Amino acid sequence: MAEFQTREGKARFKIPLIDEPCFTYYKIIGDIPGDTPPVIIAHGGPGAGHEYLLTFADLWPKYNVPVIFYDQIGCASSTHLQQKAGDRSFWHEQLFQDELDNLIDHLDIRRGFHFLGHSWGGMLGSAFAARQPRGLRRLVLASALASKELAIRGTRLLRDQMPPDMRQALDEAEEKGEYDSPSYKGALDYFHRKHVCRADPFPPAELLPAFKNLSEDTTVYRTMNGPSPLTADGSLNDWTAIDRLPMITAPTLVYNGEYDTSHDIAQVPFFELIPRVRWITFPDSGHMCHLEGHGLRERILTVVGEFLTQEVLDTQ
């Protein structure tokens, strides 16, 4: 990411049944308020933090689109709530929708904004957009998932393509509940390199903060997703936005990678049910395609930048 003048802050976020003060950290690249609607960037994980998405800071100098990054509650530079580890009733979609609404109001941008959500951030974005929130102009669902059930099916398809010894290691770890064995970690590393981020060398420097955030505080990821991308048993397992997708009125860009953990089967409902939508699958790319080489970073930035700034959008 090029060096731009940034503004950082924390938005106070009142959570019912939490007595301590809570805050959402945010970082702004560009001029707010200004003539151009900003784009809010929501990270995945849950719990990965915003740093791995800083590629999109270039939307400001290249397309004059201000960019708002934020760390969702429970991770990175926002308030951590480790006392809520394992509390499936606490870590749910509505908490993060409330946080997003609170941030929008804190920044006073209801007059107009875009939203880009990556992975879990895209899941949140689809549910948020289905409410037709005041001010939402355009929506980008980046390697998102229409439902957790479809996501699990897609992961199973990718697992089935792995070498037999790795599949066995995964099955044995899940059966015993032991996820620290060298064989399990080896299979997970293989999966990361093929499907999560295909950058060489791996991992790219931009991805290291996300790994750090996820390993130093496992509260949100472990409770909502599970022990790893290959083993899902968290509070999101019954999550779906499929029945809400027809209510999205904002023009929507959907994209994923050819080898993405967000498999095509989890993108189809977006394309079939969102009224105004485009879907792009980038060849030879994974879940973090905005961090990968061979011109992918530049291509994705161009596609997103042009989508956010073009005046007229065609329907599907």
Automatic annotation (TrEMBL):
Keyword Hydrolase: yes
Pfam families, sorted: Abhydrolase_1
Signal sequence region: none
Domain of life of the native organism: Eukaryota
GO biological process: proteolysis
Family: Belongs to the peptidase S33 family.
Official protein name in the record: AB hydrolase-1 domain-containing protein
Species assigned in the record: Xylaria hypoxylon
Highest classification ranks of the organism: Eukaryota, Fungi, Dikarya, Ascomycota, Pezizomycotina
